[in-house]
Each structure stands twice: as structure tokens, then as C-alpha cells.
Amino acid sequence: MKITRDDLLIAAFKLFMSVNYEKASFAELGKLLGMSRSGIFKYYKNKQQLFIAVVDRFWFSTQNPQNKFTETNGTFAEFIDEYVNGVQRTMDMLGKLVGEDSVIQGQVPYHARYFHLLFQLLQYDPDAKEKLRNLATGDYAYWRAAIQRAIETGELKKDTDVEEAVVMFRQVYLGLSFEMAFLGGLDTRLLSKHLYAVYSLLKS
To answer: What is the pLDDT of residues 152-172, one digit of tens each?
Structure first.
């Protein structure tokens, strides 16, 4: 059976999620796929190049708001619901890929390993900080547009500070995501509850 680039990236994602970058090898990846090292070299010249491709695909592309959420022109409450749904869909997809119930590295949840993958990228991708800035910029813009629209329709208070509101909503998500990653994973019901608590403070 021919191994595609997509097959290779998925297998490499699982490998990098299970061991540190330093311990991952083309030999181990070849075993997972049933292909030779030379076969992998046809796609990627070295481990660093492969690692960057994996994180680009399963971190930056996956977390891009355009890929993660479905656009809604409804109420801001509906926007929050879709945001939470998008987060849950993404977690479900990633969990299915890596085997959500699998025990790797002594019971470390895959959510924590997902963050660890990003931290490693800062060491091995010279463009990592720029990619993170671009990702944050896109997410800020996504929230900003929804908040501005809700102010214009009267759903949120006219004197709402848009930039401060964006930070509040994003930090609820980012804070819970990071904290709960080490405790078994983000509970999106709790995320929804806290986002709605901020919403109640800003609602007209």
C-alpha cells in the first residue's frame, strides 16, 4: 500500500506526541508505517523539517479560526456557542488521531502532550514566534469582529471596551485550556459557563 504524505504526517504526529523530539527517529517512524527511512526522505530531508510540517498541520492550521470555527452572523450568544463547539470538535479530532484513551509517558493526558509539542517547536522552528503571533492575531480579529457586531446591534453595552473584552474572552479559553490540559483535558461545559459569565457582565 502506498504511503501518502498525509499518512506520514499523521504517523509522525502520533510519534512526536508520544516521545520528545530528541527521541523520535525516522527508524521508529518507518516501523509505524512499514516503510524505509529512504521512503521518508522522499518527503522530508530531516527530522526538523518533518517536525515543523507536523506542527504546522496539527497546531497552526488546526487552531486557525478559519479552520476551527463555523462563521455565524447571529447573536453574540450564538457566537459563543459556536466557539465552544469548534473547540470541542477540534479536541475530538485530535483525540481520535492520537488515541485519546491511550496511556503514554506514564498517564500524561494527550492534551498536556499537545502543549508540550508546541513548546518544543519554539526550540526547533526559527519561525515559531512569528507563527504564534499570526495565530493570535487571527483569533483576536475573530473575537473583535463578533464583539463589535454585538455592540452595533445593541446586544452588548455601547460603552464596551472592545479590546479589553477580546482579552477577557480569550484568556478564559486560554487559561482553562492550559490549566485543565494537565488534569485530563479542557471541559467545554465549564468553558461555556465562564464565557457566558463574562458575556453577562457586558450584555445590555
So the answer is: 999 999 999 999 999 999 999
